[in-house]
Design goal:
Catalyzes the reversible phosphorylation of UMP to UDP. It is found in: Cytoplasm. Pathway: Pyrimidine metabolism; CTP biosynthesis via de novo pathway; UDP from UMP (UMPK route): step 1/1. There is one protein chain. This protein is α/β, with parallel strands linked by helices. It has a single domain (9-238), classed as Carbamate kinase (3-Layer(aba) Sandwich), CATH 3.40.1160.10. It contains eight helices and eleven strands. Helix 1 links the parallel strand 1 and strand 2 (48-53). The radius of gyration is 17 Å and the shape is globular. The structure holds uridine-5'-diphosphate. Residues 15-17, 54-56, 60-62, 74-75, 78-79, 81-82, 135-136, 138-139, 141-144, 146 line the site of uridine-5'-diphosphate (UDP). Uridine-5'-diphosphate binds at residues 15-17, 54-56, 60-62, 74-75, 78-79, 81-82, 135-136, 138-139, 141-144, 146.
Length: 239
């Protein structure tokens, strides 16, 4: 029997590193294919998928600044990195026959569509995956903030942050095997306990607009689909 998904529309945040594979740098085409497969499963059961992609596998403004570059120039490079990741992701999705739009916060005529809220909604309603790239279009922000912003704009049911660990822990589970996972947290707990789920700008945006946020392990095969079908994965952050 067909099970209907628990969410109608989601905003999935993939970090740049999620595209990088083993080396942690660049773009691994095999990883793109795996991601496409998982995203395709969601589209297949009727979930509308918005995607925000990071750029940390290529450039990060803060890291470039440490190396001596001007911060704003570095952030511009970071945002351009997210466009490159977006182009690669769209390519992989379309090769898997998943209709996809790539919209950039920074106009780049001839390469990507410029982000437009109404058009994005229309594409999502039509069942197309919409990838939002170039972050918020502004320096000093992150793609986590962009994810929460777009999630709120498109009235997503939830913002899903894909990570390498199975949710939020009270300590680093890699170095401390005793670390405990939280099933559920409030926005204020995340902020007060400095849990580093996302940066403060992103968390506050979600809090101010009551946007639930779930952190889960994307490396766990089928986790995303399981979540859509009502399963429990990772940690939920809400009011
Ligand atoms: N960035 C920015 N404004 C934004 C989003 C991103 O300036 O609205 C820049 C910033 O330099 C950031 C880089 O783009 O370091 C890549 O984004 P992010 O670090 O969020 O990527 P992720 O860690 O998710 O791979």
């Amino acid at each position: 029997k067909e099970r209907s998904p628990r969410y109608n529309r989601i905003l999935l945040k993939l970090s740049g590193e999620a595209l990088a594979g083993e080396e942690g740098f660049g773009i691994d085409p095999r990883v793109l294919d795996t991601l496409s497969l998982e995203i395709g499963q969601l589209v297949g059961i009727g979930v509308q998928v918005g995607l925000v992609i990071g750029g940390g596998n290529l450039f990060r403004g803060a890291a470039l600044q440490t190396a001596g570059l001007d911060r704003v120039a570095g952030d511009h490079m970071g945002m351009l990195a997210t466009v490159m990741n977006g182009l690669a992701m769209r390519d992989a999705l379309e090769r898997s026959n998943i209709r996809t739009r790539l919209m950039s916060a920074i106009p780049m005529s001839g390469i990507v569509e410029h982000y437009d809220h109404r058009n994005a909604n229309r594409h999502l309603k039509n069942g197309e995956v919409v990838i939002f790239c170039a972050g918020t279009g502004n320096p000093f922000f992150t793609t986590d903030s962009a994810a929460c912003l777009r999630g709120i704009e498109i009235s997503a049911d939830v913002v899903l942050k894909a990570t390498k660990v199975d949710g939020v822990y009270n300590d680093d589970p890699v170095t401390n095997p005793q670390a405990e996972k939280y099933e559920r947290l409030t926005y204020d707990e995340v902020i007060d306990r400095k849990l580093g789920v996302m940066d403060l700008t992103a968390i506050c945006l979600c809090r101010d607009h009551d946007m639930p946020l779930r952190v889960f392990n994307m490396n766990k095969q089928g986790a995303l689909l399981n979540l859509m079908l009502g399963g429990s994965e990772g940690t939920l952050v809400e009011a």
